[in-house]
Amino acid sequence: MTKTPSPIPPTAAGLCQLPCPMPDIVSLVGGKWKLIILQILVFDGTQRFGELKRRLEGVSQTMLTNQLRALEDDKLITRKVYAEVPPRVEYSATPLAKDMEDVFFAMRDWWKRNHPPSA
Q1: What Gene Ontology molecular-function terms does this entry list (predicted)?
Q2: Domains contained in the chain, number
Q3: What is the DSSP secondary-structure string of 52-116?
Q4: Which of 23, 27, 33, 111 is 20 to 30 A away from residue 118, measured at CA?
Q5: Which residues of 7-19 are buried (b: 16+ CB within 10 A; e: fewer)?
Q6: Residue 11: what pLDDT?
């Protein structure tokens, strides 16, 4: 009789087989603003810079610019500049970023399970 191996439990060892992807994942989406920017672009679609700035309460223009550039460098968003006066710039999620939709739902579900609404 052949014994089937038991599944690896979802521990750090089970999730992080060598080479561990977590440092790369954190590099892509870590920080205070990247996940929020991605959430907006994945679920609400293309946004202009000013729209993103208004939706991200407390982000400076410099920080937003840096975060958008990093996400663009990592191929998670695209930037389209229109030759207008004043220039119009729009940001959109790439298919790579849109593929993270299930991750956002999983994080929301985890939050709901572990942080019940207060009465």
Answers
A1: DNA binding
A2: 1
A3: HHHHSTT--HHHHHHHHHHHHHTTSEEEEEE--SS-EEEEEE-HHHHTTHHHHHHHHHHHHHHSP
A4: 33
A5: eeeeeeeeeeeee
A6: 61
Helix (H, G, I), strand (E, B), or coil: what is residue 10?
coil
Quick check: is 34 in a domain? yes
CATH code of the domain containing 52: 1.10.10.10
- Paired tokens of 36: 């929020």
Q: Is residue 99 part of a domain?
A: yes
Vertex 17 angle, CA 97 and 21, to 5°: 30
> pLDDT confidence of 87, banded at 50, 70, 90?
confident
- Please name the helix (run of DSSP H) or strand (run of DSSP E) that holds residue 48, with its range, or none: strand 47-48
Backbone angles phi, psi at 8, to 5 degrees: -70, 130
Instruction: Name the pLDDT band for 12 (thresholds 50, 70, 90).
Output: low
- Residue 12 lies inside a defined structural domain of this protein: no
d(CA 41, CA 96): 12
Query: 47-48 and 88-93 as β-strands: parallel, antiparallel, unpaired?
Result: antiparallel
